[in-house]
Amino acid sequence: MTKFAELSSGSEDPLYNIGVVTRMTNISTATLRAWERRYNFPQAQRTSGGHRLYSERDILRLQWVKKRVDEGMQTAQAINALKYQEETGHVLLLSETKPTIKAQAIDQPAFPVFRNRLLTALFDLNIGLSDQILSEASAVFSPEDLILEVITPTLAKFGDAWEEDKISIANEHLATNYLRQRLLMWMLSGPPPKPVQPIILACAPNEWHEGSLLVLGALLRRRRWPIVYLGQAVPLPDLANFVRSIKPSAIVLVAMMVETASQLAEWSKWLPEVATSGIPPVGYGGRVFTLSQEWQMRTPGIYLGSDFREAIENLERIII
Fold it and tell me: Which CATH number applies to 7-88?
């Protein structure tokens, strides 16, 4: 197990009044009082006159919870997540300033446990249990980890099971749509977006496999990028007109099969000014490009890479 910065390293001596803590944590006094009243968190000590006093450890705990809340967690979930991390003896480093898509050094066995539980629940068509499992996971993992380490592999497992004729189409659709709704929720409820033009996300013409595009959209919103999600099977003439109307920061196109990649590769015919100027940048990805360098060479634009972390890094590199 990888060790994280431990909260117990902070002094527990009550030294700081509520005004100082507000300045140190950027949490208002009203919020501090509300958290103590609703969640009994943190348990500030009191002076003889009844004024709250906080320790260094209290401040570290408050900073940890505030960061989780800023990333999109509900306050109660963030506090429960902190308590879970304290019970296991470790918490995430406090020095990070924005969500990360790098692999977290969280206790790795926890990921397959949640994946297997979710997979079994959805195989059994048990939506109530699936809700419970994801609720438990969201109290332990960041949204980025939950998306990359639990939901994405579960989507892939159901796709493989359907292709191998191990489950019915109805079962595959139920599971896929259930996870799809979760990803869409993260797109809609992400942190405040950056004040820039949005990124367009679209599947190639006749491409109906949108799982990877949904994951990418959710991760981009977690990193505060505004997005316009066009989704499945977008005709290139319609895409071209849309691009000209909103002038996006970037365009991301996805194709999973040779047939749809061949259509995606024709995008420059409909957007010749973009192909010539490189503005906005056009990135693409999908299974067919990962498996074939030939298709990477045949397709204009920028191949974003073989996994989501690489795709996000490459996309941010060409936008910033």
Answer: 1.10.1660.10
Q: What is the pLDDT of residue 100?
A: 43
Q: Give residue 203's Cα distance to chain centre.
A: 19
**57-71, 91-105, 178-192, 261-275: least confidently modelled range:** 91-105
The enclosing H or E element of 302 equals strand 302-303
CA distance 265 to 119: 35
Tell me which of 135 and 170 has the higher pLDDT.
170
Which class does domain 199-319 fall in? Answer: alpha beta
State the chain's mean pLDDT as an integer.
83
> d(Cα 149, Cα 104) in Å, to the nearest integer?
10
Q: Is the pLDDT of residue 203 over 90?
A: yes
User: Per-domain residue ranges for the chain?
Assistant: 7-88, 110-188, 199-319
- CATH topology assigned to domain 110-188: 1.10.1240
Tokens describing residue 7: 């909260």
Alpha helix ranges (H) inside the chain = 18-25, 29-39, 56-70, 75-88, 110-123, 127-138, 143-146, 152-163, 169-188, 211-222, 236-246, 258-264, 267-270, 272-277, 287-291, 293-298, 308-319
- Residue 141 is classified by DSSP as S
Answer for the pair 217, 188: CB distance below 8 angstroms, yes or no. Answer: no
Selected residue with higher pLDDT from 24 and 28:
28
pLDDT for position 273: 94
